[in-house]
Amino acid sequence: MFGNLDYSTLLKAVEQNDSPVYVYDAEKIILQYKRLVSAFKPIDIKIKYACKALNNSAILKLLKNEGSGLDTVSINEVKLGLRAGFAASEIIFTPNCVGFEEIQEAVNLGVHINIDNISILEQFGSVYGNSVPCCVRLNPHILAGGNNKISTGHIDSKFGISIHQLRHVLRVIKTHNMHINGLHMHTGSDILDSGVFLQGAEILFDAAKDFPDLQFIDFGSGFKVAYKPNDITTDIEELGKALGDRFIEFCKEYGRELELWFEPGKYIVSESGYFLVKANIIKQTTATVFIGVDSGLNHLIRPMLYDSYHHITNITNPEGKERIYTVVGNICETDTFGWDRKLNEVREGDILCFHNAGAYGFTMSSNYNARFRPAEAILYNGNIYQIRKRETFDDLIRNEIEFTSF
To answer: 205, 229, 289, 361: which is deepest, by most CB within 10 A?
Structure first.
């Protein structure tokens, strides 16, 4: 089968939580974390888990216990990290297009600040001078990633400060006597070629010569995981050897050792996740056999937003005769999870499993069509634990204020 968990465990999760439900395998998360750290030995890399991928406090605490730090992109993610027990010094804050007030709030909370545009850099320098260190996010103008919506380092991207504006950046820093303690880049997601990282590394290494007080260089992430059986993935060990050796060499050129940071999200949690849904109806038209499930793009939007592939299995009838189906949701939109999928025969009431659903599943979910967001559960030490309740009608109307002027 595709994935780590046996079907009986997943069916037990449905029995305990009903469907739909997200289930995360803690053992797989820990395995991915340790594999990444091991790949860069002897360098003691610093992992800052990108919590936008999956921010349930149980997952954050699990990774904190393994020694991870946290990458955050909003002030509320910072607060989630602090609530989960991360020290402020373990958190980096890399927002995009936020107001300066949010930056100041993060400064007051004591986390690392990462700045990705010149306007905020100037404001930061004007207010804090060299009293508060910050990191600078550079855009290396490298086109990388599996989809243009998740490619963040190319010339038309809104992310980062163009490497071609480096001289302007240096003037701002000099004018305000700023303390720059880190350089950062993130080229995109689903990157296969380790040469992309090496290309970006040389750009950052060259830029670092103009920053004498660095503590770390942060390469973001973007490592590709398997979405299909036998899918091609990033060779972490190959990357670790090549980039690690070059980083050690660069530190000698720089004159002292720096910290090497990464911000993986999907790489750590994606393959740990299973999204379990129930087949509500089997609907045959003149051209297609549809499986309509008790979920939709409100719970898993990636197939509609990114044309992403999630392997689907019928875990209720795994030995059934294979047939061709199109799997769709119950939202009043065309919310197709998978066209023309070969599945073991599906009957109404069967439980289907979407694999590789740990990243950007629940965190991108919504209440569209006034539907509840699903429950979440974790498999830890052989037991299933609920880590988020399914929403109720009270949750939908909790923040409404009754209007009585009609």
So the answer is: 361
Does the domain made of 26-268 have the CATH classification 3.40.50.300? no
Spatial distance between the Cα atoms of 196 and 244, rounded to a whole number of angstroms: 14
pLDDT in tens, 204-229: 999 999 999 999 999 998 888 888 88
Give the Cα-Cα-Cα angle 254, 258, 260 (nearest 5 degrees): 125
- The reported pLDDT for the residue numbered 147 is 39
Query: Considering the entire predicted model, what is its pTM?
Result: 0.93
Question: Does the annotation mark 332 as catalytic?
Answer: yes
b (16+ CB within 10 A) / e for 29-55: bbebbeebbebbeebebbbbbbbbbbb
> Cα–Cα distance between 343 and 266 in angstroms, integer?
26
Q: pLDDT value at position 198?
A: 85
In CATH, which of 2.40.37.10, 3.40.50.720, 3.40.50.300, 1.10.150.120 is domain 270-390? 2.40.37.10
97, 134, 135, 332: which one is catalytic? 332
**Are the C-beta atoms of residues 139 and 96 closer than 8 Å to each other?**
no
